Amino acid sequence: MSFIQLQNVSKRYAEVTALDRVSVEVQTGEMLGIIGHSGAGKSTLLRMINGLEQPTEGDVLIKGKNITDLNKLELRQLRSNIGMIFQHFNLLSSRTVFQNVAFPMQIVGKKKSEIKARVEELLERVGLSDKKNAYPSQLSGGQKQRVGIARALANHPEIVLCDEATSALDPATTDSILQLIQEINRETGITFVFITHEMSVVEKVCSQVAVLEAGRIVETGKVEDVFSNPRHDVTKSFLGLTPKKGGNRNVS
Ligand SMILES: Nc1ncnc2c1ncn2[C@@H]1O[C@H](COP(=O)(O)OP(=O)(O)O)[C@@H](O)[C@H]1O
Ligand SMILES: [Mg+2]
Predict the structure, then answer these.
(1) Is 53 helix (H, G, I), strand (E, B) or coil?
(2) pLDDT tens digits, residue range 204-233?
(3) Strand, helix or coil at 161?
(4) How far apart are CA 98 and CA 191, in angstroms?
C-alpha cells in the first residue's frame, strides 16, 4: 500500500482545470519531487494531499484512507500529521524563533513543558539554538527556512510537503537546506513531497520525480531513469536539452 496515492485526481476552479486526471503514488519514507512551470498545478496538488481542498474528481488516499471520507476530527488529525515548508517561510513576524516553532504545538494543545523540550531539540537539530529569542526580521533567508523546517517537524509529522522550499534562497544556501532536509528524511523516515521548478533540486534530494505540465503528469519515474532518458519535451527543457523560446540552451 502506498503512503500517499492520488488516483485520477482532477481539480477545476470555474473554467480553470488546475489538475487533470493526476495519478501519483509515494511510498513511505520516499522523497517525491514534483517539477513544473508556474501555473502547472503544483500548489494545488499539495493542497489535495493535506486536505485543504477536495478533488473535483478522483480520490486522494493517505495510508489507504480516502480523505473525502474523513470527518472534521480525522481531517484535523491528518493535517497535524503533515508539516508544510513554504517558499517565503510564512513565519509570524511578531513571534520569536522559539514561539514560531512552538506555534503548531500550542494549536493542538500540547503541554508547556513538552513544547519547550521539543522546540529546544528541534532548534538544536537545525542549528539555531543560539537564535531562539531572535525575531524573523533578524535572520537570513537560510536561517528563516531552518525555522520553517523546525516548525514543520514540531508535531512529529509522517509527511512533510515542501512548496518551492528553496526558491527564495541563493545556491549555497539552497544546498545547505537541501542537505538538512535529506538528513532529516534519512533520520526520521518522514515521507517528503518536494515541489520545485528547478531540476537540480530534484536531482539532489529526490528518489522519484513527476513532471507536471498544465495540470497533467507528463512523465514520472525514478530520478536516475528520468534524468538519463527523458521522454517528454517538458522534461527535456527542464534538463536544458531543448531550446527554450528565445533561449540558447540547446546542448545537442
Ligand atoms: N483558488 C483558486 N481559484 C481559481 N484558480 C486557481 C486557484 N488556485 C489555483 N488556480 C489556478 O490553477 C492553476 C494552477 O495553479 P497552482 O497550483 O498555484 O500552480 P503552481 O503552483 O504550479 O504555480 C493556475 O492556472 C491557477 O491560476
Ligand atoms: Mg505554486
Answers:
(1) coil
(2) 999 999 999 999 999 999 999 999 999 999
(3) strand
(4) 25
Answer yes or no: is the C-beta of 40 below 6 A from any ligand 1 atom: yes
CB of 214 within 8 A of CB of 184? no
pTM across the whole model: 0.93
Q: Report the residue among 6, 12, 15, 16 best suited for mutation to probe ligand 1: largest number of ligand atoms under 8 A from its CB.
A: 16
* Residue 203 Cα distances to 4, 32, 39, 136, 209, angstroms: 21, 11, 22, 30, 9
Residues contacting 72, CB < 8 A, separation 6+: none
Residue 75 to residue 142: CA distance in whole angstroms: 32
CB neighbourhood size of 1 (10 A): 9
Binding site membership of 46 for ligand 1 (Cβ less than 6 Å)? no
Per-residue pLDDT tens for 101-159? 999 999 999 999 999 999 999 999 999 999 999 999 999 999 999 999 999 999 999 99
18 Cβ closer than 6 Å to some ligand 1 atom: yes
Q: Which atom of ligand 1 is nearest to the CA of 17?
A: 12
CA–CA separation, 64 vs 56, rounded Å?
19
